[in-house]
Amino acid sequence: MPELPEVETMVRDVTPLLSGRRFESARLSHRDVLDGVTGPALVRGLTGARVVGLARRAKNAVILTDRRRLVIQPGMTGAMFVKRRLTADDARYGVLQVRLDDGRTFVYHDVRRLGTIRWLDPAGWQRFSDRIGPEPLDAAFTPEVLRAALARSRAAVKKVIMDQKHLAGVGNIYANEALFLAGIDPSKEARRVSADQAGLLHRHLVTILADAVRAHGTTIRDYRTGTGEPGNFQGELQVYDREGQPCRRCGAPLAGTHGIDARITVFCYRCQR
Ligand SMILES: [Zn+2]
Fold this sequence. Notes:
By secondary structure, the protein is α+β, with helices and mostly antiparallel strands.
């Protein structure tokens, strides 16, 4: 699923093309991506709304209009584009197509439809955002904030940093990577992570996310930027997608397990304690 760097990239790419634009009409092909809004209400709400700004919160793209916020969490295969001409693929997989007042079309494209679309009023947005933890690239996310979250939990440290109520936007790729860089065993009970290790983990989370944003995200399979390109960070990955390959630090073969959460965790037995 696109994580913080990938969603940030999508938002940055479509921002100049969407800011200030008015939505002339909207078409929704499937309702199974909607949460908390019906298809007709979404289409009615979008039609005539003007975009006043874009942002990202956790793994969500947030399009603020003069009515409500269109909040899109791209699923595994979710992507967003603004195009002058749609392709046959866009017509087929464009779950939401919104015609702009300059003749272009904003498309939320989602082959497997694992994404979610919300249409939130200010109170709904507040509730939604309040359930999510601090943004790792904001100054409010300090080593103390991370330390406190870890100290409260008996869950595996990997689960805690991927839990959106503790930290916004970190998913499997960057959790695996940050834990490797910090030399922490991903299965370690969070409250047993030392203060020094938590400090290191904080530093590596922040730097890897910032570096991945600069590289326009990581493309393993499906992810595309808002201009349709793959990201550039996949070549920088130390452990994710490298199970069985040699650790770049010590040469030992990297181990993989699904035992921590349901997802693949890749780590080095020697380097991560
Ligand atoms: Zn190693």
